[in-house]
Amino acid sequence: MPPPIEGVINALKHNPVAVLPRGELFIGRDFLDYFFSQWKGNYVKQLEAVAQSLGLSVIGVELDPDWSRSLLIDEGYKSLEEHFTVGWINGPIGRLIEKHGFFDAMLSVKKDPSLFSEAAADALRDLEEKVRWVRLNGFGAIAIADDIAGNKGLFFPFTYFMDVVWPVYKKIAEIIRGSNLFAFFHSDGDTGKVIEPLIRAGFDCVHPVDTQAGLNLYELTKTFGESISFMGHIDTVTWSKEQIHNEIGRAEKAFKKGGVILGSTSGLSMKTVNDKLDILYPRWHRE
What are the φ and ψ backbone dihedral angles of 246, each rounded to 5 degrees? Predict the structure, then answer.
């Protein structure tokens, strides 16, 4: 069996894989502190432990906080090099919502476009600063986390996305890929309408395939073929154990040529952990 990183790269490049790689983009500090309390305060050690306990090939790392920036600069994440590590930062829409609240952020789409411009400039500056350190720490990818959709589609008109948001995403993907990293994009909700533009922008992988919003992994892969990969389509919250088990078997057979990273749609936190987690991650044993 190939090393974890090689298996992930093969999946992302739509090359044959013996076993689909598994991973989580969002691993909450609450989850880490509860199940790996012996290393509380040591984020990197906790990530190593959760990767070992669940058998993760892909590990998501939070890069926005100041403490994480310090770890980056000190090359504190290098001990994760045997895994395919994806550093994630908030995108422009996420920053806009965080600063102004959801209602005012959406209102600014029509009323005050300068607010988005400020958020976009901030996101690009942050990315340009961190991308070099990410590479030095041995990461394989950067993900832009930007919740732009709900269960009924985009939070704003598609024309606004294409005219205003998409050019920023294109610059983001160019910066990431220009540093020989894979470019991931995250948004919950029904993102089906923007996947083709994300491909044109240069993104390599979309996370997650939000089944509660009506997205279907098999329809998406049929539509987009080898143009993009997908990560995270197992709903460990609402699906039954049998459904999870059956879907994992189906995906393993359907994607032997790559294109998919198995993982949950919701990430790992104390709100989402339950007795179905060990169906997706058989090595998981809770204390």
Answer: -65, -40
